[in-house]
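lol so apparently i was supposed to do this last week
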Amino acid sequence: MNIPLAVATLLLSLPPAVTLRARPSTVESKSAQRAALVITSEPEIIVNGSPCLFRVKSRRALRSLYGEWQGRSIFFNFDERDGAWYGFAGAPLDAGVGRSRLTLEAVTASGGRLSYVHPVRIELAHYRTAAISVASQYTEPDAEAMARIEEGQGLKKEAFERVTPHRLWSGNFEAPVDSRTTGEFGTRRTFNHKVQSVHQGLDFRAETGTPVGAMNSGVVILAREMFYEGGFVVIDHGQGLLTLYMHLSEIKVREGDSVEKRQTIGLSGGTGRATAPHLHVGVRWQGIYIDPAVLLTLPLP
Ligand SMILES: [Zn+2]
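anyway here it is w/ zinc ion bound
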């Protein structure tokens, strides 16, 4: 869904601050200028690889609010209790550091259209490096393994491309297991001194057979065995937000199932490319991986 900006917009010069006061375009009417927006983000400092929640408070009643940031759609929902609009977003790991543009399109209660542009600063995250040893089939896959890898890539591509425009999640995301984390998001890893990749998820300590709970409500879009992922479940939470659960020893849901927050979706294990039993959790938002640890700290409406 792409809504082009109908009106020329005014880019304000602001320090790398958190609270951004926006004014509508100078070509708007005087009444529109009274509809000043106040935008805040959580977390306050956004780094590459981080999810974030934009909160928009408007003095003027709005019928709808839609945003775009770094080529991705932000679907805003109105929260009655707070009287503010909330939109979930994320910055990719390879996001350019510095100023970026958040564009907003609002439709007022009377049907008028307003456009805004806000500067949002992206800071540089400091991620670690690590060396990992795995069975050689995972760094030098044979022909049979390559066929499974390609099949898995096709299935993931299809699942990941779908964006459900409405929101299926509600409230905070919760940890899938009650244990400490052992592997951070963003770590640059070298497998068997050969294959390099970035760890695009968060690892939790979990012995084989530990029940794994859905981090929020949604619909299961993948539930099957795959080469690298092992027992693999993907839940679509709507608005392009997905959670991924890997290395499961047992899968307890089927593709197409609706799941509630905390519902057991499987049992943890060490299947696929895993050095030992643990639970790997990934979070995707509109084609990028974002840090699950930050998602778990976000206070969500
Ligand atoms: Zn992992």
